[in-house]
Write a structure and sequence with these properties.
Radius of gyration: 15 Å
Number of strands: 0
Order of helices and strands: HHHHHH
Largest sheet: none
Oligomer: single chain
Distance between the termini: 41 Å
Number of domains: 1
Structural class: mainly alpha
Helix content: over 70%
Number of helices: 6
Strand content: under 5%
């Protein structure tokens, strides 16, 4: 779980880019939810109701790639969905959620690499 959540934390800048491109304000909430998740992991007492509310809030904020078709929309969507899977794990203790979270992060890496390849091709 720590690996998945630490990986999500590395993608905070993707949500900053999303906010910059689309004029949204998701970063503050996304960042807060990451911090909350780390705090929950360090506590022995989980408030499952609060976790579920946080998950629902994150799900409602997840950008839809149809409405935000640029790369920044897809990357922010993957980062937020990966965090949702972390919350799902904390609620259900289903280890499959960790795999899903890491899978979304791998998709993000793949998407980022495709963008970088396109930029390199343009610069040639």
């Amino acid at each position: 779980m720590i690996l998945a959540l630490s990986s999500v934390e590395r993608y905070r800048n993707l949500v900053v880019d999303f906010d910059r491109v689309y004029g949204e304000n998701l970063y503050e909430i996304f960042s807060c939810k990451i911090d909350e998740a780390f705090n929950f992991l360090s506590n022995k007492h989980f408030d499952y109701h609060f976790l579920q509310e946080s998950l629902q809030e994150l799900e409602s904020l997840t950008p839809d790639s149809e409405n935000y078709p640029e790369t920044q929309g897809v990357l922010a969507q993957n980062a937020i969905i990966a965090l949702c899977y972390c919350y799902d794990y904390m609620i259900t203790n289903d280890s499959e959620m960790i795999y899903h979270s890491l899978g979304k992060l791998y998709e993000t890496i793949d998407s980022s690499m495709k963008v970088m390849a396109c930029v390199i091709m343009i610069w040639r």
